[in-house]
Amino acid sequence: MVANEWAWLPTPRKEILPTIQAALRERFVFCDVIADLLSAACYEPCNVLLWGPGGHGKSEMALTALRALGLQDEEIFIQSFGEGMSEDRLWGGPDMASLDTCVRYDTTRSFLAPQYKVVIFEELFDAPAQALLPLKDVLTRRAFMNGNERVEMAAKVVIACTNKDPREFAEGSDAVQALLERFLLQKEVRWPGYEAKHYRELFAKVHRNSSMGGKQLQTMLSKVIAGLNEAKTFIMSPRMAIQSLEVVSNEAKIHGDNTVTAEAFRSIRFVQGMQSYTADLSRRIERQLPNEPIHIRLTDADFSHHDDGPLKTPRGEVPARISQSLKSRFIHCDEIVQVLTHAFFQPCNVLLWGPGGHGKSDMVMTALQELGYLENEIFLQSFGEGMTEDRLWGGPNIAKLDLCLEYDTDRSFLPYEVVILEEILDASSQALLPLKDVLTRRVFMNGNRPVPMRSQAIVACTNKDPRQFAKDSDAVKALLERFPLQLEVRWPSYDQADYEALFHKTNPDAGPDRRKLNRIYAHVIANLNDDRESGFQVSPRIALGGLRLAANSVGRHGRKKMIVDDILTIRNIQGMESYQRDVESLIRSALREGGVEVLLSDIDERAHQLQGKMQDINRKFAAAKDLDDEARGDVNDEAISDMVDLMSSMDALKHELQNLQVSDPMLVKWKKRSELAVDQVAAEIEAGR
What we know:
RavA_ATPases, Rossmann fold, elongated, alpha/beta, coiled coil, ATPase RavA, P-loop_NTPase, five-stranded parallel sheet, MoxR
C-alpha cells in the first residue's frame, strides 16, 4: 500500500483502535469486538459487513467510530437499500443537463462523489439483483463508467449493515454471493446474553450522571425487561430498552411529582415491538415488580430533557392539555391520551394503527391544536400505493429541472415541527426507504444540498396491522423501528353503553327525545355487531353518520317520531354494504328488545299510509264509472288487486301489533291507542271492500 493511503484519516494509524474503542465504550455494551473490526477496516482500508437483529445500533456504532476518528458528516455517505432500490438511485439519478443527448447519472449525488471517504449502506441485501450486480462491479474495479466518462470511487471503506443473515441469502442468490465476496470483514452484531445486568450496563452508559433513584429505576427496569424476554419469540433490543427507560422516567415527570410508581412501568406497552405480546402484558410486567409499593424519586439528572420542550407548549402543560381536549370529545381515549402525551412530551414519533373510523387523525389534530398549533402549521399527508419520492419531498424544483433534479422541499414535511402521515403502510418501498433514511439522519440531501428535518414529532396513522406488514416487507420493518411508540386504536367493547356514551359526547345538551333516540339507536347498532361474523364492529364514524342520517330522515319526511324506515337509512352508510339483505329483520328484532316506541310509531305511520291507500283505491273505483266498459274493467281489476294487497298488509300490521310485548305503563297506553287506530282503519277497509 502506498504511503498516502495510510493518511486518509485525521487520526494516526496507531491510534485508530484505541480511539474507536473509547468512543464505542461510552455508548454501547458488547462493543469491543465491533471496535476491533471497524479499526481493522479503517487501518488498512477494506469493506466490512455488520449483520444481525434490528435495534442493536449497527449504523450508530459505525457513525460513532467514524466521527471519533475525525471524519465530518459531509465525508460520510449513508444510503438505505431495499426492495425499491434501483440503479437510478444507486448512481445518483439522471443527469438532467445531458438527458437530451444520452443517459448519464449525476454521480455527485451518489456514494461516488469525491468528498466521501466512507460509505454506509443500510439493509443492503433487501435490494433486487438489478442493483446489487452493478454495485459488485464498481466495488471490484473501484470505478464506474458513466457513459463514456470514468468516475473513480474515492471512498476507502464501505460499511454494509443488514438485519438479515447473509448466509441464508447467499445460498439462493448469485448476486448476493458475489457481492458478499467484496466485504472482507464480516460480523454478526448481537449481544451474547440479554440478562438484567446487560440492560443495566446499557442504561448506566445512557445516563452516566443518574441519581440514586435513577439507578434504582434502571435496576428494576432491567429486571422487568429481562423477565419479558422469550428466547425463541421475542427479545427486547437495546433501542427498545432505551425507549422503555425514556417512557417510564417520563411517566414520573408527566404526573408532576418526579416519582416512579408501579403504574409507570406499564407504559412500556407503548414501545415499538411490544405489540407482539397479548393482553396479559400488564400482568407479566407486574410479576417482575416487587410486592411492596414502588416510590422511586428521580431528579433532573435522570431525564434526557429540560422543562422547556421543542414544541410550542411547555412540557409541564402537555399532559393536562391533551387530556382535556381529547376526553371532552372522544370516549375510550385514555390510552391515546397517554401515548400522545409521551410522544409530544419527549418528543418522538408515534404510530397509531387499528380499524378505520375510530378518529385516529382527528384525535391527533385535536391534541395538536390544543397545544397551540394552527391548522396551517400541521403538515398532513396521505400515503398510498401511488406515493412516490417526488410527492414525498415536495415535487421537482421546476426552476432547476434543466440543470439537476432537486425537490421543492418547502412543500414537504421537512420544515414542519409536527407532522401527520396517514395510511403510511400503503406506500411502496420506493417511498418508504428514503423516508426511513431521513427519519434516521434527520437530514435530506436535496441534490448536493443538505436540508435539515425540523419535524420533532411525526404521527403515522394506518388502518393496517403493522405486525403483519413487517413480516412481509423489510422496508416496512425498517421504517417501523423509527417510530419508538406504537398503539393499536380500537374500543375495548362495542356495547350499547359505548355507543350511548359516544352520542352523549357528541351532543351533551340533547333533550329527552334525542336522548331516547340515542338509546334506541345505540341498542340497534350493538345488536348489529352481535349478528355479524367475528371481527366486525360498527365503528364510531359509522355510528355517528347513521345516527345523523336517521335523525335527518325524520325531519325530511315531516314526521314527529322516528319509524323503522328512518333507522334503515344506516344501510346507505359506508361499510354497511354487506347488511343489505338482512338488516331490516335484524333491526326489527333489536327494536322489540330495546326500541318498542319506534315500532309503535312505525305501526301508527303504516296504518295512516294504509288509510291513504284505501282512499286512493276508492278514487280509482269512482273514476272508472265514467269510462267505457273495457277501460272500466281494466281500472277495476287494478283497484281490486290493490285492495287485496291492502287487506294483506292490514292483517300483517294487526298481527305485528298483537305480538308486540310491552310492560311500561306509558307504552301500554300507546299500544292501546295504536290498536284502536288500526281497528278503525281496518273497519274502513272492510266497509270499502
